[in-house]
Amino acid sequence: MEKRELLSKFQEIFGVEGTLYFAPGRVNLIGEHTDYNGGHVFPCALTIGTYGVARKRKDNKLRFYSLNFEHLGVIESSLDDLKPYKEADWTNYPKGVMWAFGEMGMKMDSGLDLLLYGNIPNGSGLSSSASVEVLTGYILRDLYGFKVDNKALALIGQFSENKFNGVNCGIMDQFAIAMGEKDHAIFLDTNTLEYQLVPIKLDGIRIVIASSNKKRGLGDSKYNERRSECEEALGELKQYIDIKSLGDLLEDDFEIYKNAIDSDIRKKRTKHAVYENRRTMKAVDALVNNDIVTFGKLMNDSHISLRDDYEVTGVELDTLVEEAWKQPGVVGARMTGAGFGGCTVNLVKEENVEAFIKNVGAAYEAKIGYAADFYVVDVGNGPCKLS
What domain range is 51 assigned to? Predict the structure, then answer.
């Protein structure tokens, strides 16, 4: 949808002119389910994301409209009633950010009209909710003059998702979106929030996202269950070794102390968290050294660990990845995001992209019974004002 169309749609719905903003989606190249375990992640912002048109009001009213959910019409709320309601649907994400700003001592002095349009596939695992959160924070900063940097926008977005929407997510999604930079991925230590922008040199290789089209929501998936399994294992390990998070462990440490964990299931979960963190560090070294073959192999190993030790893939994601591995020109393929549906990320040689999409798509539909969608994406910048 063109910028012009979004601005005129806002005027049509709300009767006034607004200002246009954008925040990207993100894909995580490697480092899955490590962010809440104090490990490293390696995401990048994308050129697809969420557009928002907004305007301050003179009263306390909040009015929301989404071009992705037009059947819901205008959803009204108020600054005096910033609480999560099931019937408020998608507006709980921007409302959560408004609430979080207030909790941090930055109260909005008037209401807001907000129109959103996202070209991230909904429920795909490319972080549409975090994109909306960072976008809302960026808009509030711009319109209300709040003194926060982009890093703070990421933390406020995470706080709102944890405390307002009840999803125990880590920091990665919001951080990648708020801090994204074109043609760079972010090597982030989630324990310290120290990060490094690493150039992505994918000469002749494209990033292809395959969406399983199996819908899933983080809050109602087993995400929180995995998180609590890791927290319990961390508590058991702390009795024997001085660590603050599973991200502090080397592979050898895990092998020495794993019997302190009194459950085979929790051992498997911990093994994934420890090995995936180290895999991510090795993958970044490989990319810096222009060794894309090793990077791809580590992506494949990541998927196997997510499938066998963390058990968050499922038949849809496994089918997409296993079919990808059979295709010529595929450097690496893995599930990305929380799992239980969502997407895979694939590095594919440019000349093989068309055949890859055709072949993997046909095999997936034959086995699963409905189609996958494919997106050839570029690495983009963080949030911005467009008008």
Answer: 3-200+381-385
